[in-house]
């Protein structure tokens, strides 16, 4: 290989390396997580706020008809808080990676995981990760995750039979520290029944 050819190869390597390094991690942002059912129906969006290893998600509705609920994941403090604003109560539990992964549909590692190209989601290039999940075992369909190197959370997830979760309206930028604190007038509950006001 001649000197010119070697120089061209080195130049191309540097170009591609620069492109890879150009994908900066977005560690602080807000977004809306939208759940779409297989029939196309969308549930009300859930507001998500991320600041490093701290994540807050606001559930606008509850299956138990107790109003809204808020989950605050504090990895630095190794704790998860569940707030019930209408009741002014909260629960505290130890940190759980499993709970975080289930809430934000983070793809598992291990066998049954494969990459199937890339796709652009919400303007960000994502790796398309296919997983033979528990849902897939029941329906014969895998789950698909669209993961960007810029974000810790998947930008889109399709669970087996067709439920889709997607982060939309992503707005990078610092988030208020107050979002990751329990209000001072909230009471710490002993258990879920105590938190939502159900007597034994």
How would you sum up this structure, described in words?
It is a single chain. By secondary structure, the chain is α+β, with helices and mostly antiparallel strands. The protein has a single domain, classed as Lipoprotein localisation LolA/LolB/LppX (outer membrane lipoprotein receptor (LolB), chain A), CATH 2.50.20.10. Helix content is 19%, strand content 38%. It has four helices and twelve strands.
Spatial arrangement of strands, main beta sheet: 7-8-9-10-11-1-2-3-4-5-6-12
What's the pLDDT, averaged over the residues? 83
Please identify the structural class as seen in this structure. Answer: alpha+beta
Helix content: 10-25%
Tally the helices: 4
Question: How many strands, what sense, and barrel or not for the largest sheet?
Answer: 12 strands, mixed
In total, the number of strands is 12
- Tell me, what is the CATH class? Mainly Beta
| Uncertain segments | 3-21
Shape: globular
- Succession of helices and strands: HEEEEEEHEEHEEEEH
| Beta-strand content bin | 35-45%
């Amino acid at each position: 290989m001649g000197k010119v050819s070697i120089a061209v190869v080195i130049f191309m390597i540097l170009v591609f390396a620069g492109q890879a390094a150009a994908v900066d991690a977005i560690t602080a942002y807000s977004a809306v997580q939208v759940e779409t059912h297989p029939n196309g129906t969308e549930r009300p969006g859930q507001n998500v706020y991320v600041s490093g290893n701290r994540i807050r998600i606001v559930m606008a509705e509850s299956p138990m008809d107790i109003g809204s609920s808020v989950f605050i994941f504090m990895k630095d403090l190794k704790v998860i808080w569940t707030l019930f604003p209408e009741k002014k109560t909260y629960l505290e539990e130890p940190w759980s990676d499993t709970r975080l992964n289930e809430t934000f549909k983070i793809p598992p590692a291990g066998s049954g995981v494969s990459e199937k190209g890339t796709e652009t989601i919400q303007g960000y290039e994502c790796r398309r990760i296919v997983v033979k999940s528990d849902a897939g075992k029941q329906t014969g369909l895998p789950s698909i995750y669209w993961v960007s190197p810029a974000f810790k959370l998947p930008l889109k997830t399709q669970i087996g039979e067709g439920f889709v979760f997607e982060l939309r309206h992503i707005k990078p930028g610092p988030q208020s520290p107050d979002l990751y604190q329990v209000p001072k007038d909230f009471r710490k509950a002993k258990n879920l029944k105590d938190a939502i006001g159900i007597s034994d």
